[in-house]
Specification:
By secondary structure, the protein is an alpha/beta fold. It is built from 8 helices and 12 strands. The protein is globular and about 45 Å long.
């Protein structure tokens, strides 16, 4: 069986040193191309080295920037198929979900993930990765606790980003009770978890684990 590799981070870039090295190693099998899924906003080009610098240091030579829209180009879609690693950036969680979950982009991401291509999600990218995408009130325009369909890269876990910064403990406990999902992961800024085959394999920084009743 092909191993699945998922890296989730509580804040924005950069990668932690150890997890960045592992992601780069997994995505550098011969020819490599890491595709970065992003929503364009002012200054995004200047921000990209925060994602790429450590990966380049450990051998990733080719990066493709994929601005997400409701109608991505055929060329970008074709390039995505050949990715050896995928990064989902941070930003507007609802928009990332709309442009990835239940779209052709999301289908390709899930297919490549099942084929062993490593996926990394930062903040919004982490929140949309489980089967249930939980968006806290602080992170959406309705100021409500949203429970939406996610990508399904983790089938029995919930993710809470910016955990300490946003004081998310009660929200994560509430989400676990509401969804009846058995595991919750609170991830601080500058922190991350590497899941191998949906099991926690390595952590960096501050992460918090909640089970069942929180």
């Amino acid at each position: 069986m092909t191993d699945k590799h998922l890296f989730l981070f509580g804040g924005g870039a950069p990668f932690n040193e150890s997890l960045g090295k592992k992601f780069a190693t997994l995505s550098s099998n011969g020819l490599n191309k890491v595709v970065i899924l992003l929503i364009e906003r002012e200054g995004w080009q200047e921000y990209m080295p925060k994602y790429t610098d450590i990966l380049a240091q450990y051998g990733v030579a080719d990066f493709l920037y994929f601005p997400l829209t409701s109608t991505p180009s055929a060329d970008l879609m074709g390039q995505l198929y050949s990715a050896t690693g995928i990064i989902i950036c941070g930003g507007d969680t609802e928009l990332y979900r709309d442009y990835i979950v239940d779209t052709k982009v999301g289908t390709i991401v899930k297919t490549l993930y099942l084929e062993g291509v490593p996926i990394a999600g930062f903040s919004a990218g982490a929140l949309i990765s489980p089967t249930v995408c939980v968006i806290p009130p602080i992170d959406n325009r309705k100021n409500e606790h949203l429970f939406l369909q996610g990508l399904g890269l983790i089938t029995n876990g919930l993710i809470s980003a910016h955990f300490s910064k946003w004081d998310e403990e009660n929200n994560l406990k509430t989400a676990l009770a509401k969804t009846n999902i058995s595991q919750g992961y609170g991830i601080d800024d500058d922190s991350g978890i590497y899941f191998k085959n949906e099991m926690v394999s390595e952590t960096a920084g501050q992460v918090y684990f909640y089970y069942g009743n929180g």
